[in-house]
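FAQ: What does the model actually see?

It sees only this:
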Amino acid sequence: MATFNESAERRLIATPVDDGAEAFVEMLNNTGVEYMFLNSGTDTFPILEAFARMAEQERPVPKIVVCIDESTAMFAAHGFYQLTGRTQAVLVHVDAGTAQIGGAYHDAQRDRAAIVVCAGRAPATFGTGVPGGKDMSIHWIQEQPDQNGIVRTFTKWDYELRNVESINWVMQKAFQVASTEPAGPVYLTLPRELLMQRMEELQVPPQNRHGQPVAPAADQASIDTIADWLVSAKSPLIITGASGRYPDTVGPLTELAEAVGAPVSGAIGTRMNFPTHHPLNAATTGGPSVREADTILVIDHDTPWIPEADTLEPSAQVAWIDIDPTKDTIPMWSFPADIMIQASSRTAIPALRDAVNKRLTDADRARIAKRVEDYTAASAAERERLTARALAVKDEQPIHPMWIAHCLEQVLEHDAIMLLDASAPESAGRTSGIVDTKGSIEWQMKGGTEESRSAPTKFEGRLSWNLEDCILLFPPLRHKTLVYFCREIGGNGR
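And it is asked to produce this:
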């Protein structure tokens, strides 16, 4: 039997490198990075040179995605993380580039996006004798007392590389921390003189020895209690937020909702947590609000309702399942809970579904089936109402958003995704329109012009990426934006 030192899978691998920048690229390879999203600068050019040298030598390197600005790089990495579930890498310029990603960095934090952000750092070494030392005036004005502090409030971990020999462990830790639940961005600064420091080899650690910790499983006694509540509830409600980051939770959550006859809200957001075409989607069922529900299950949601504005029934039973149930990064956060479970929804939802199914009697199933039947009828009636409203405004000028929604529903395939960077209260979306697609839908909003007022009569655009079935009820937006968007994806207009 092989010992620890004899096992090839566990052994550090001496990898030839010319300098710290090549060591950085080798660690990108080691951590499984496929793409580097970047907007470069004067203190990150050694990394680009390393990419070029290594590619010319036919050594493996991630693909470079050059972005128009730093925020775009961050948003691109965020989107790719949502599609793949794999930690992404971003490279930006020193303090200026770091400041540019502020809003996008905030979004990554709140959306639990695992992104390793690497930034250049103005050199600290004086003199021209050291490669990469301070040799331009800009190196003084681009140095801040605390560059990392620009994004520290949004980051899980930040660190400045102190010696090039430790870049292997620093990079491993960065990707491990970013991907550990609750996932989120980390921030590394890379001083230029370290990137340009000569090296002969890098001790590359084995990938399989720095995995992310396994998220805790839900306490079975608590799961059993919640199951009892849901089975006996007369007006249950499930509120979801980020469970859809695990696509394999969508099926079990759907089965759980069907088993207990609970409408699901919060399904319209940055992720597809629950199929929005489903009759138990609260957007169309007219299901209970938090004020009316007697049992509420919250899963991976930061703000399921507004305290005081949405007053719960005093007798309502509230259960929370979240990997971060106390929301440590939200200073003012307090919601009522009778049971709060710290666990991965990936394991907790199937466990709760199974616990419910074990408890259901024939009488329970008959009672719940009647409730589901009522919600199904209400959902169908709501869809008919919305369709009628769309048809009633089809000839309006300027074009009405509901008519656009109706047209999109008729022509888009089930594997289409639309992108939008606008938001509105979820309740607004319940009365605006329906698009039947297969994806978690956002829109890419662009400013319209006067000539974009005319209503398109035919839509030929198609978008890709297969995700789960859903129906989007999107909020009303300004006609100029919507029509311009339709033209952008290939629509023909009058």
